[in-house]
Design brief:
Shape of chain A: globular
Structural class of chain B: mainly beta
Radius of gyration of chain A: 14 Å
Oligomer: heterodimer
Largest interface: A-B, 21 and 28 residues
Order of helices and strands of chain B: EEEEEEEEEEE
Structural class of chain A: mainly beta
Largest sheet of chain B: 7 strands, mixed
Strand content of chain B: over 45%
Distance between the termini of chain A: 40 Å
Strand content of chain A: over 45%
Order of helices and strands of chain A: EEEEEEEEEEEE
Radius of gyration of chain B: 13 Å
Shape of chain B: globular
Amino acid sequence: AQSVSQHNHHVILSEAASLELGCNYSYGGTVNLFWYVQYPGQHLQLLLKYFSGDPLVKGIKGFEAEFIKSKFSFNLRKPSVQWSDTAEYFCAVIYGGATNKLIFGTGTLLAVQP
Amino acid sequence: GAGVSQTPSNKVTEKGKYVELRCDPISGHTALYWYRQSLGQGPEFLIYFQGTGAADDSGLPNDRFFAVRPEGSVSTLKIQRTERGDSAVYLCASSVDANEQFFGPGTRLTVL
């Protein structure tokens, strides 16, 4: 079945620490990959996306993600987190080209301590 | 400009009742999506429209759920004979293409 796994459900970091959130998908065909973020009290918004080309993609607010096809992974990274990065982070995938439906992971709640 | 809007923001109903949830997409966005999010889970796809037609309704859980988009803009998600398990946040999103879906604030549905 098409699915998305996020292994870290709850992460607590201090400011300036580095962040890496894991995301794995289940399908070996064509995929479009996304990271969405939901700040407290706000809507889901797009952080970054990968469709093709350079597997290292850069998004807003200093976030980046690397697509590793052989590992079916699309991990999110940030070298130095800030208190304002406290949010819930969702990895999402569009499988194949016939539909635009997003399959989401269960999310990772990140708390950054000042 | 205006984002995706959803009404009501909160809806409390009793088991067995009928509810309608409304979504106003971003002007000019041809695709519209419905998801629902239960506590501690990621959003789960329900249905998406391209224009007026349902392009993919594979996520609707059963025939109590139905959605329409008669003029290719506003959409209504309709739930008949609500059950306690239908309690969730119902999210709407719209997009021009597959590049980015813009999400609304959601409608929190509570079935007592």
